[in-house]
Amino acid sequence: MKCPYCSYSNSRVVDSRVSKDKAIIRRRRACERCDRRFTTFERVEMIMPLLVKKDGRREAWDRRKLTAGLEKACEKLAVSATAIDAFVDAIEQKVQDQGGKELSTAQVGEWVMEALPALNEVAYVRFASVYRQFRDVNEFMAELKHFLGEQGAKH
Questions:
Q1: pLDDT tens-digit readout, 107-132
Q2: CB 24 within 8 A of CB 43
Q3: Can you tell me the distance from the alpha carbon of 34 to that of 9, in angstroms, rounded to the nearest whole number?
């Protein structure tokens, strides 16, 4: 593993820990040249389907895009980075479980929209406003009324 400080290519593992769900290994490393410590994370690389966008373009799954969108939706809310990471893990698992070579971004968006209220209701409204691309306040209000109706039915 290349040292992020001096770029030396040899380091030793000082400590390893497995995550609670046993999906990630966290390793503390020390560079053999400069002796500075750094952390690496190891996870299984999954073969993910290509995402088909609304305009027909195809692109590779990018976990960082979903994470960035959720971080923006959860900005200044009481949602931890750990909770966002777990949420993205769950969506990523759904994408993987679907099993095909391609998947529409619309399907992924719907999975996010279905699960997001459980993470944070305000984040849901923020995400929906971007995802649904409302043309005016009436469309936004219709979505909000639909959401509030679903929430009332669950209580």
A1: 999 999 999 999 999 998 888 888 77
A2: yes
A3: 11
